[in-house]
Each structure stands twice: as structure tokens, then as C-alpha cells.
Amino acid sequence: MSLSQHPLSSAALALALIGTLTACAIKKDQWKDSVDVPAKWNSQKRTDAPLNTAAIRQWWKRFNDPTLDALIAQALTASPDIKTALARITESRGERSVQLSTLLPSISGNASDRIQRRDEQSTDRVTNSETVNLSLDMSWQIDLFGRQLQNLQAATKDVQQTIENYYAAQVTLAADVATAYINLRGAQQRLDVLRRNVQTRSDTTEITRWKQEAGISDTLELQQAVSTLEQARAAIPTIEQTISETKNQLAVLCGQTPGKLDALLARSSALPRVPSRIAAGIPTEALNNRPDVRASIDAVLAAYHRKTAAELERFPTLELGGSLGLEALRTGAIFSPEAAARTLAGSLLASLSQPIFEGGRITANIRINESLARQAVYGYESTVLTALSEVENSLVAIQRISERLEVLRKADAAAGDASSLATLQYESGSVDLLTVLDTQRTQLSVQEERVTAEANQLQAYVQLYKSLGGGWQPL
């Protein structure tokens, strides 16, 4: 099985294994063998088209925005979060290698050279002797009942889980960049709307000033026009602050310092194009494509292997030990074929040990791992339920926001016509200033709502692609 594919059926297998092999501690009525995954989405009437996982692997290209493409590509390469997730894979693989070493014998070499001097005063004779020792020592704990193998399998699942967490980090990062980018473009669009409204109110203020100078209107109307104009201007710094903060947020997500992306972001200020709606398939396909669901499956299997290893600690252990040594009376004779003053010695020892009394340590460790296995199962169920909810919420959001946006666009057109008509009638003296100001406020409010709804619609698509597991690139 490749790391980029992890069938959802293994989830049911994982839970079934735990239910069967840990039934003594985890009763069937305490948790479900698998979440009751529906056959189709509640928000989708038809499920004819399957989920196109290849199409959502780089879902951001469906927005037809080169700047967004460049931002996500840079983030997936330079983000500290992505680098951290990659480093954790290396760490996990190292820990697995350490666990693998427990299945293999340990061999060590030793060498010693001892020189002795003996001075006999009675004969005035001095003798020197040299003894050289070379030895190889071996120890090997035989995995008689498979305890080390269970720990190795748990470590293998840990590696797979860190890989899936890396994929999940990619999914989250791509969605975060797209969301921040849409927020930026939405704020820029609201700023553009506000500036146009300021210009309209400025024109109305000038008309009022001319009328006041001509004696057609009084000072009260002029001050009312100035007040609404300055009120609109006062909102500009707040939006500009939001734009600056969002640019900085994008820089952090892309692993850059503030200001480094300004040139790239200055290419356009328009919102991305609304993508064509992708078939969501059936729930099982979405769960199978989500790295966080696959990671929770690996966590369940790893917990099961560790619990089994804890149970096997009750069984005897077999350890082999041995040594092979070579001793010579001088250094030059140790490898000399014709040397007689040399001794070769070897030994082999096998020992079998069985835990008899350990103060309840093994039993406590089994209970700990049983609890961890239960927690892993509950974590899996929570992840699946959250995933199903996220897809449903995204599908509903796209539908409802689209309906609201259609109404707001009609209201925007009507508010624009009303504002223009009121201004013309005010110039001709048919209506008073308050009517004009009221239509302008309505127009600004409706336009801001429309722009916000357009951004929310795009964000709903981003959340849909994220909830379907789109955005991860295999190693």
C-alpha cells in the first residue's frame, strides 16, 4: 500500500481488530466499531458523479488567479509549519529504526593491552611481560512471543501517521492562504466601494455648498452633508489597517517577512473567479481522501499494537549471550599464524526469564495502553464526525450564500439607481437633502454586503475543497 493511498476500509478493520482483541477491556457497548457513515450527503440530492480527487489536489487553480497560485506554491515550500511537519517524519522514521534495532543482535568489540614489570631484588633481575586481549561480545534478546515486533509495528504506524499529518498540514495551509487572500481582496473591494461612496457624498456636499451660497439651502443642510461625508471617510483607515494586517498574515503563512509579498499582491485587487462546483461524491470517498482521517486510523492501529506488546510482557523472554576472545603474550603475536603463545576462547550463554512479581507494573501498563486504545478509537470517531459535518456545512453555505448574493445584486442595482435619481431630484429641488443622504447610506450598506457575500461565497468553496481533503501533495 502506498503512503498516498489509505483505503477507508482499513478503518473498519482497525476498529474490528480492537473490538475483537481487546474485548476484555473495551466492551462493544462502549464504542462503535465504525461510525455510521451515510450513503450520501444530506445537502446533495444527487450523488451520480464520484469525487474527483485529482481535480481537487490543486483546487486553487480552479479560481483562475495566478497570484493565488503563486502564494500557495510558495507557502507549501517555505512555510515553517510544513518544514516542521517534514522534520517530524524524519524523527518518526528514526524512532522506528531504533525500535527495529531491538530485533537484532548487539555485537561489541573490545581490545586491551596489559604490560607488567617485575623486579626481583634478590637476583637483581627485571622481567617485563605483555598480554594482549581481543574479544567480540554478543547479546541478543530473542523476540520469542513477538513483543518487540508489536512495538515495531506500532512505530511503523507512527511513521505513517506523521506522514498523514504532513499531508493534513498541507491541506490546512493551502486553505488558510486562500482564505487570507480572499479576505484581502474582499477588503480591497470594500475600500473601493467606500472611496466611490466618499466621492459621491463629496459631490453632494459641493452641490449643497453651492445651494447654500445661492441662498437656496441653509447652513444646517451643509453641515449634514459634511457630517455624512466625514463619517464615510473615517471608515477608510480601518479598512486600510485590515488590508495591511492581512498582507502580513499572508507573508507569515508563506514563510516571508512582512512586506516581501507586496509586489506580488499589487498585481490585482479583484476577487478571484468563482470556480465551477465540483462533485462531492459520497461521504466514504471524502473520508478516504482526508489525511486527518487516515492519520486517526494509524493512531488506532498503533495503539492496538502497543497494547498487545504490553500484554506480551507477561510471557518469558529468551536472551542469548556469547563472546569470542583471542589472547597473546605480545602485540606482534596476536595475528601471527605461527605464534604458539596465543589462546582462543569462546562462550555461549542462553537464559530464560519469567516475570513472577513486579509490583503490578505489567498490569498497570496494560491498563494504560487499553485506555490509550480507547482514546484512539474515540479520536477516530470524532475526526470522522467532524469531517462529515464540515462537508455538509460547506455544501449548505455555498447554496445559501449563492441565493443571498443573487438578492443582494438586485438590491445593489436598485440602490444605485435610487441614489442617482435622488441626486438628480435634489439638484432640481424636487427632494430634500435627507432623502439623498439616506439613499447614499443605503447604497453603501448594500454594496458592502454584496462584496462581503461575494468573498464569503469564495471562502465557502475553499472550505468545501478543504473538507473534501483537497490540497495535499504526496511525498
CATH topology of the largest domain: Outer membrane efflux proteins (OEP)
H/I helix tally: 11
| Order of strands, widest sheet | 1-2-3-4
3D shape: elongated
Largest sheet, if any? 4 strands, antiparallel
State mean pLDDT (0 to 100 scale). 85
Rg, Å, rounded: 37 Å
Question: Which strand-content bin applies to the residues?
Answer: 5-15%
The CATH architecture assignment of the largest domain turns out to be Up-down Bundle
CATH superfamily of the largest domain: Outer membrane efflux proteins (OEP)
CATH class of the largest domain: Mainly Alpha
* Amount of helix: 55-70%
Describe the structure.
This protein has 475 residues and is an alpha+beta fold. It folds into 2 domains: 9-103 and 146-316 and 365-467, Outer membrane efflux proteins (OEP) (Up-down Bundle); 107-142 and 317-353, Outer membrane efflux proteins (OEP). 60% of the residues lie in helices and 12% in strands. It is elongated, with a radius of gyration of 37 Å. The model is unreliable at 1-32 (pLDDT under 50).
Keywords:
disordered N terminus; Outer membrane efflux proteins (OEP); 4 strands; alpha+beta; 475 residues; 4-stranded antiparallel β-sheet; 2 domains; elongated
Secondary-structure blueprint:
Layout lengths: L8 H13 L44 H13 L1 H22 L4 E15 L4 E18 L4 H68 L4 H16 L1 H18 L8 H4 L17 H7 L1 H22 L4 E12 L13 E12 L7 H68 L4 H35 L8
Antiparallel strand pairs: 1-2, 2-3, 3-4
In short:
The protein has 475 residues and is an alpha+beta fold. It has helices at residues 9-21, 66-78, 80-101, 147-214, 219-234, 236-253, 262-265, 283-289, 291-312, 361-428, 433-467, and strands at residues 106-120, 125-142, 317-328, 342-353.
